Amino acid sequence: MTSPQPRVVLGVGAGIAAYKVCELLRRLTESGHDVRVVPTADALRFVGEPTWAALSGHPVSAEVWTGVSRVPHVRLGQEADLVFVAPATADLLARAAHGLADDLLTNTLLTARCPVVFAPAMHTEMWEHPATQANVATLRARGAIVVEPASGRLTGADTGPGRLPDPAELFEVARGVLARSRAAGEGARDAAVPLDLAGRHVVVSAGGTREPLDPVRFLGNRSSGLQGYALARTAVARGARVTLVAANVALPDPAGARVVRVGSAEEMREAVLEAVQGAGGEADAVVMAAAVADFRPAGYRDSKIKKTPGAEPEPIRLVKNPDILAELGARPHGDQVIVGFAAETDDVLANGRAKLARKGCDLLVVNQVGEDLAFGRPDNAAVVLAADGTSTEVPRGPKEALAEIVWDLVAARLKPAPG
């Protein structure tokens, strides 16, 4: 029977980022998870055993010889609903990939039959080294989720990819993986939940574009980016490699996603096309959740437009922006699944069906927007229209719930991965 308190093993590697994992542990315990911390011996040089024990409420050891009568090196992995390793150092990834079992954490990894997530953190050169990348590929091929590290300031003066993602975002990954595992039903702990987006590259757009009028003004919209970010997070939790093209969003980067920041519709078009047709090959799916401005000012003023006393302002002439979704739908895209979003204020379904026909996409998520609807809210409701004539109604609920349904529909349309 499924425990009402999800059981999480939090493995901690020997990296300076271990101090950030204290915040991840706090979020897990305060949200009702039963967490057992299993550090490596060297990890205790960064954060000591008393801290982990106090935050988790359980005794902590890195050794297989502590509490031998309870057989912890087997029991911890067998009983866990999730094993989450952060920071996952280059050494720890290598040991896990090669099946070594020289401490309590690596023993636990071998006995775990639940979802396993690694959150790497190391210097850029170590992350990009072919040996590390081969170990990551091996772990992913076995069904583990290896979250892409963030880019930013590292130890010392170094900057680059290899930074541990924000603990709040790692918590969202853990929560998403657990929710998916539990949704799979009883017995999910006996076999890892299939990652239906594993090995896939997906591109998601989010936020709202801004079209500059002068140095201080722009034409924009109310999109917060919350739905696009929910799509990115849930795709990571399902094993995908995610490129998130974000326009004017004030949200922390989703853990595991590569974020490309843009401002205008023209910039978004360039970034989306580059991501879709990048050096890594065609993306398997593109989800255009961003609110892209239909129009932009025909001209840009180099200085602020001033009010003239007693005179009406000059009209602002608008021109059309590129239609990114229609361009994606019109180009030969083979097995690529293209998803659009349609924000409507009236005649929602009629407008949605007409837009689906015009855009050439496989799926169109149609939702009603307006005051206190969709934009800036944590919840959403929609109807997902498909090019084959089917439709899926999604009742109002968390934006993550809508994201999961979108990815269910995408996954069902993806051709089998080669090999």
From TrEMBL:
Pfam families: DFP, Flavoprotein. It catalyses: N-[(R)-4-phosphopantothenoyl]-L-cysteine + H(+) = (R)-4'-phosphopantetheine + CO2; (R)-4'-phosphopantothenate + L-cysteine + CTP = N-[(R)-4-phosphopantothenoyl]-L-cysteine + CMP + diphosphate + H(+). Binds 1 FMN per subunit. Gene3D superfamilies: CoaB-like, Flavin prenyltransferase-like. Keywords: Decarboxylase, Flavoprotein, FMN, Ligase, Lyase, Magnesium, Metal-binding, Multifunctional enzyme. Residues 197-412 form the DNA/pantothenate metabolism flavoprotein C-terminal domain. Residues 1-201 are annotated as: Phosphopantothenoylcysteine decarboxylase. CTP binds at D294, K304, P322, D323, I324, L325, F341, K355, K359. GO terms for cellular component: phosphopantothenoylcysteine decarboxylase complex. Residues 202-419 are annotated as: Phosphopantothenate--cysteine ligase. GO terms for molecular function: FMN binding; metal ion binding; phosphopantothenate--cysteine ligase activity; phosphopantothenoylcysteine decarboxylase activity. Its cofactor is Mg(2+); FMN. InterPro entries: CoaB-like_sf, CoaBC, DNA/pantothenate-metab_flavo_C, Flavin_trans-like, Flavoprotein. Catalyzes two sequential steps in the biosynthesis of coenzyme A. In the first step cysteine is conjugated to 4'-phosphopantothenate to form 4-phosphopantothenoylcysteine. In the second step the latter compound is decarboxylated to form 4'-phosphopantotheine. Catalyzes two steps in the biosynthesis of coenzyme A. In the first step cysteine is conjugated to 4'-phosphopantothenate to form 4-phosphopantothenoylcysteine, in the latter compound is decarboxylated to form 4'-phosphopantotheine. In the C-terminal section; belongs to the PPC synthetase family. In the N-terminal section; belongs to the HFCD (homo-oligomeric flavin containing Cys decarboxylase) superfamily. This is Coenzyme A biosynthesis bifunctional protein CoaBC.
